[in-house]
Amino acid sequence: MIGGFSTPKKDHAIKISAGQPVKTGQILVRGLSQYKAGKNVKGAGTLFALCSGKIFFTRKKTPHGKFRTFINILPAEKPAK
Question: For the whole model, what pTM was predicted?
Answer without folding.
Answer: 0.77
